[in-house]
Amino acid sequence: MHQPDVRLFVDGRDVAGLVVADTWARRARGMLARRPLPPAMWFVGESGVHGVGMTRTLDVALLDGSGRVLATTVLRPFGMTRPRRGVVDVLEAPRGSFAAWGLTTGSTLARRGSGAAQVDGS
Asked: Considering only CA atoms, which of 1, 9, 2, 19 is closest in space to residue 122?
């Protein structure tokens, strides 16, 4: 389900449209079989992700409860992220997105717009 009115903010800057995976069904599907891939997907209540069935490499950010990036990694097809203390949400985006957005460990992320619960770390 595309949510064109929900936006991703990195350190206060509006960087991309966002799909919020806030139900079991949305989290289970993730980015699998989406053509084209959405600019970003925020997994609510997940501490890790996997790339089983994926054909593309993704940027992944592990987030704490305030939207602060605790770590970033590259998720290759059939790979997985390791558990990490304090992670409550995960952000995925097509490979190269984080560099384009200036997203690094320590960045603060927020999602804003109608149709999604708001998280604002500022």
From this structure: 9
Reply yes or no on whether the pLDDT at 60 is more than 70: yes
Peptide bond into 4 cis (omega under 30): no
- C-alpha closest to that of 75 among 89, 88, 94: 94
pLDDT tens per residue across span 88-110: 999 999 999 999 999 999 999 99
- Type and span of the H or E element at 29: helix 24-29
Q: What is the pTM of this model?
A: 0.84
Q: What are phi and psi of 107, to 5 degrees?
A: -60, 155
Secondary structure in 3-state letters for 48-97: CCECCCCCCCEEEEEECCCCEEEEEEEECCCCECCCCCCCCEEEEEECCH
Cα gap 119→22, rounded to integer Å: 12
